[in-house]
Amino acid sequence: MIPNIFELVTTKRPGIFFIGSPNVGKRTIISRLLSVDFEDVFDSSRDLLAYGWTIDTKYYTADVSLWMAHLHDGFSVEALPVFDRLSALVMVFDINDLSSLDTLKEWVSRTDIQTFDILLCIGNKVDLLSGHSAHVGYRRRLQKLEESLGNTTSELDYGISETEGSSLLGDGESSWQIKNSCLEWCSQHNIE
């Protein structure tokens, strides 16, 4: 069972805060961490979403809260009611839309992110980049699923071509420059 926002605000759970432009995949990442489908419970009109999560590894167990907000003009993480309990900042951008990375960079320039113990930046949606091995693997998985369902006459072109396209993580010179720029920015701000 996922605790509601009131329960999370009133408990002393350490927090993990997810931030990024709308539609970069923050909710998908959280739903996979929690093994819960949020399609039915997501209310896009809310500014702040919160979920409880028990991290259970072979070394430790910890109850934490996951917080998520869409990055927009004037957003201040310091104004959140749980700011003093946020330990980790997870910044998410869409690797297919580099303006979402630029938006994160702008926000970081106005925010003291060094108050967080853990800083992560995730370039999401790499599986949608033609020519990237994750895209090829994803398309092959879709193709096998179709075949297992008995659909051998699918009209989908699964895009299985390891040589097509260029991307942020591709081999092109501009892609290499973009990747290095992203890595340099993360290194400058101690972001993993």
Automatic annotation (TrEMBL):
<dbReference type="InterPro" id="IPR027417">
    <property type="entry name" value="P-loop_NTPase"/>
</dbReference>
<dbReference type="Pfam" id="PF00071">
    <property type="entry name" value="Ras"/>
</dbReference>
<dbReference type="GO" id="GO:0005525">
    <property type="term" value="F:GTP binding"/>
</dbReference>
<protein>
    <submittedName>
        <fullName>Ras-related protein Rab-1D</fullName>
    </submittedName>
</protein>
<dbReference type="InterPro" id="IPR019341">
    <property type="entry name" value="Alpha/Gamma-adaptin-bd_p34"/>
</dbReference>
<dbReference type="InterPro" id="IPR001806">
    <property type="entry name" value="Small_GTPase"/>
</dbReference>
<dbReference type="GO" id="GO:0003924">
    <property type="term" value="F:GTPase activity"/>
</dbReference>
